[in-house]
């Protein structure tokens, strides 16, 4: 079991030695492009091609690069997979399985919490928002960010995602880990160790060569912003998928039993280990997670990023959700739900405090009070009953079916993952906790023709 101690120096100046050493070996052995700046275009293409083959956990055991991969790059990738693909000794399969059961039971609500809690809190860190902005002008590509996030969450949390050979959680997390290291090395134009010893990385003239060139040419000041994708940012992001998720359930009156909360935190700590996060940056109880989350937020707020990209990222995310709601009067509900789940301080930092007119705000407050009050009264007789659960499932279905599952959007999901998520979406059409009439209302509001159908109803496209 990892301990809860804190390490020094600052987590903002620590990254991922294994993944960074891997990318350093790859870039050092690669031929550079003809742009005059030493951009390792060929190496990036080879790495991207090879990691796309990591589809299941079982494929990682004894994995070998393709025969045409240059020997130094093949050796670096194979060494990385051999060292990184195993679960930690403290991983508890029973607790991981329990977390998977909770995720399946929570189902569509998890998508609403991803959009209205986890991602907004992720954008709150100024430096992290700055990295996200650099990595592809993200406010113009919200779909890509959301789908890439889902491409990690679902393989991890679906049945056997971390523990079964047929699961894809470990494989997907290792892809993300190498992507983080690649981003670091491109932005810093070298290893983190070199960047810590040298001065700021100056910007280069824009070449218009795409995302990787944009990262390479942007410039970075480690003394001011820390390392890109550093331990502080990684640990904070991990908590947005675990602690913020659990906090959202509590806020909605749908809290899990304590043992289940700790199982959920444990599963994500296992993910964190595979992702290269230090054990000292993990929490094991809800209370510990809350303290660590606040500490990381405070530390991150000290590192201002100019210009502040957070409002742009948040506005783009809100717009993506609002576009999937057909009724104008309730179109601002995602913004208001985000403010309710994340709190006033986060809403102000993200520029969400003044985006709602008075009638819409009054309607949301009235609906929230009625729903929570009605739920509390009915649960005296029916403990599993919840209108708030039904309404957040409606939002989750719309976001999942129309943003995550739409293959015409950026970042086409792999067929294996698409099939798994499709199966989960079909299973989630009916909420077994609710009476039949509640499921019928949910199907109507979600745009499905009937409970259990994954086809949108007429007029709901």
Automatic annotation (TrEMBL):
<protein>
    <submittedName>
        <fullName>DUF2236 domain-containing protein</fullName>
    </submittedName>
</protein>
<keyword id="KW-0472">Membrane</keyword>
<dbReference type="Pfam" id="PF09995">
    <property type="entry name" value="MPAB_Lcp_cat"/>
</dbReference>
<keyword id="KW-0812">Transmembrane</keyword>
<dbReference type="InterPro" id="IPR018713">
    <property type="entry name" value="MPAB/Lcp_cat_dom"/>
</dbReference>
<feature type="domain" description="ER-bound oxygenase mpaB/mpaB'/Rubber oxygenase catalytic">
    <location>
        <begin position="142"/>
        <end position="354"/>
    </location>
</feature>
<feature type="transmembrane region" description="Helical">
    <location>
        <begin position="362"/>
        <end position="382"/>
    </location>
</feature>
<keyword id="KW-1133">Transmembrane helix</keyword>
<dbReference type="GO" id="GO:0016491">
    <property type="term" value="F:oxidoreductase activity"/>
</dbReference>
<dbReference type="InterPro" id="IPR037473">
    <property type="entry name" value="Lcp-like"/>
</dbReference>
């Amino acid at each position: 079991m990892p301990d809860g101690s804190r390490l020094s120096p600052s987590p903002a100046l620590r990254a991922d030695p294994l993944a960074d050493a891997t990318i350093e070996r790859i870039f050092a052995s690669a031929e550079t492009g003809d742009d005059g700046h030493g951009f390792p275009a060929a190496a990036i293409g080879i790495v991207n091609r090879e990691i796309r083959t990591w589809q299941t956990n079982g494929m990682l055991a004894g994995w070998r690069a393709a025969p045409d991969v240059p020997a130094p790059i093949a050796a670096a990738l194979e060494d990385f997979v051999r060292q990184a693909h195993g679960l930690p000794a403290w991983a508890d399969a029973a607790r991981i399985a329990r977390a998977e059961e909770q995720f399946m039971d929570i189902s569509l609500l998890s998508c609403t919490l991803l959009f209205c809690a986890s991602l907004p809190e992720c954008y709150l860190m100024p430096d992290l928002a700055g990295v996200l902005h650099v990595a592809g002008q993200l406010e113009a590509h919200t779909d890509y960010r959301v789908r890439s996030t889902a491409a990690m969450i679902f393989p991890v949390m679906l049945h056997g995602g971390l523990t079964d050979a047929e699961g894809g959680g470990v494989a997907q997390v290792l892809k993300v880990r190498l992507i983080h290291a690649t981003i670091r090395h491109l932005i810093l134009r070298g290893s983190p160790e070199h960047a810590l010893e040298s001065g700021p990385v100056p910007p280069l003239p824009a070449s218009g060569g795409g995302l990787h060139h944009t990262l390479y040419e942007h410039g970075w000041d480690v003394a001011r912003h820390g390392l890109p994708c550093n331990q502080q940012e990684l640990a904070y992001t991990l908590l947005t998928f675990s602690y913020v998720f659990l906090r959202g359930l509590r806020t909605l009156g749908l809290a899990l039993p304590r043992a289940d909360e700790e199982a959920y935190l444990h599963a994500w700590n296992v993910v964190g280990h595979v992702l290269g996060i230090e054990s000292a940056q993990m929490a094991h109880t809800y209370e510990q997670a809350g303290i660590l989350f606040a500490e990381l937020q405070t530390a991150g707020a000290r590192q201002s990023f100019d210009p502040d990209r957070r409002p742009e990222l948040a506005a783009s995310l809100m717009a993506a959700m609002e576009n999937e709601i057909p009724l104008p009067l309730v179109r601002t509900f995602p913004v208001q739900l985000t403010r309710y789940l994340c709190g006033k301080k986060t809403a102000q930092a993200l520029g969400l405090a003044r985006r709602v007119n008075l009638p819409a705000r009054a309607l949301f407050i009235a609906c929230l009070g009625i729903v929570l009050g009605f739920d509390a009264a009915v649960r005296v007789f029916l403990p599993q009953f919840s209108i708030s659960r039904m309404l957040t499932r409606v939002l989750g279905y719309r976001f999942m079916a129309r943003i995550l599952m739409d293959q015409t959007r950026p970042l086409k999901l792999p067929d294996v993952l698409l099939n798994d998520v499709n199966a989960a979406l079909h299973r989630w059409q009916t909420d077994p906790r609710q009476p039949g009439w509640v499921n019928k209302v949910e199907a109507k509001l979600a745009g499905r023709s009937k409970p259990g159908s994954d086809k949108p109803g007429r007029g709901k496209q």
